[in-house]
UniProtKB/TrEMBL annotation:
CC annotations in GO: membrane
Highest taxon in the source lineage: Eukaryota
Keywords: Membrane, Transmembrane, Transmembrane helix
PROSITE patterns for the chain: UPF0057 (PS01309)
Source species taxonomy: Eukaryota, Viridiplantae, Streptophyta, Embryophyta, Tracheophyta
InterPro entries noted in UniProt: DUF247_pln, PMP3
UniProt keyword annotation of Transmembrane helix present: yes
Protein name, UniProt field: Plasma membrane proteolipid Pmp3
Transmembrane residue ranges: 6-26
Cell compartment(s), UniProt: Membrane
Protein family per UniProt: Belongs to the UPF0057 (PMP3) family.
Length: 262
């Protein structure tokens, strides 16, 4: 007599209604597990509780993924690569423009280079009173032992520290709708990134291609001259009223932002 047949006999003796339940769909495995539990022998199948998700891990996943499939960027290196490209305001003089990326993922950074100019696409980011503390905690999470991340937040901060060196750079990114400043002034928004120590850790393969293309475009001897020529052509071709409207719209946007803060 097999073990399951023996247990069926025991169930039929001590729990007569079992036969009715077996007839109407409750399998013998359920009753065997119940009997073993009553006898204190535990379940026949191993059960395990799901591992709880850390709050920082869940937040990291949300701001990094953003609809962009995960890619293997290789191992993370602590040696910081050398990139000579300039801050946002200086890049503007070289013919660069900044545009919002189609997704909010921190990995969604790209560049499109043309002969006369280049477009850098960056994910939209909002600076608030809690941003600096949040980023510091995420950097600590990425630098922790056995971290499953690819240093996305740390690498993004390093990229922004290259682009932002002062209030003028924040103003440029804000007017291009890449950076939303919810602080009292642009100086405080600049300090959010410049005041975070990433300890020299970076994933050079995450934004490596973009940085190399920026360097290559900046090395063009004619890039600054072409940018100046393009600006002069805009002033000649566009009526003065259009240029004044562009300045007015940028100023109005900043005024509305200050009203919302109050």
């Amino acid at each position: 007599m097999g073990s399951e047949t023996f247990l069926e006999v025991i169930l039929a003796i001590f729990l007569p209604p079992v036969g009715v339940f077996l007839r109407y769909g409750l399998g013998i495995e359920f009753w065997i597990d119940l009997l073993l539990t009553i006898l204190g022998l535990g379940f026949t199948k191993e059960t395990s509780l799901p591992v709880p998700v850390h709050l920082l891990a869940d937040l990291h996943r949300k701001i990094v993924s953003g609809g962009v499939p995960k890619a293997n960027h290789g191992s993370v290196e602590t040696r910081k690569p050398i990139h000579s490209f300039l801050r946002a305001t200086d890049l503007k003089e070289k013919g660069f423009t900044f545009n919002p990326s189609p997704t909010e993922s921190l990995k969604d950074v790209s560049i499109a280079c043309y002969f006369f100019y280049a477009r850098i696409h960056l994910p939209v980011w909002a600076d608030s009173a809690h941003t600096k503390v949040l980023l510091k905690n995420l950097v600590a999470y990425e630098l922790s032992p056995n971290s499953p991340t690819e240093m996305e937040v740390t690498s993004y901060i390093n990229l922004m520290k290259l682009l932002i060196d002062g209030a003028e750079d924040v103003k440029e990114l804000r007017e291009r709708r890449v950076l939303r400043n919810m602080l009292s002034c642009d100086e405080e928004a600049a300090a959010v990134f410049t005041g975070i120590d990433t300890h020299g850790v970076n994933n050079p393969r995450l934004y490596g291609d973009v940085k190399e293309q920026i360097d290559a475009h900046c090395d063009l001897s004619c890039s600054t001259a072409i940018s100046d020529l393009r600006g002069r052509l805009l002033h000649l071709l566009l009526p003065p009223c259009c240029l004044g409207f562009r300045r007015l719209s940028s100023t109005t946007q900043h005024i509305h932002l200050r009203i919302d803060r109050s």
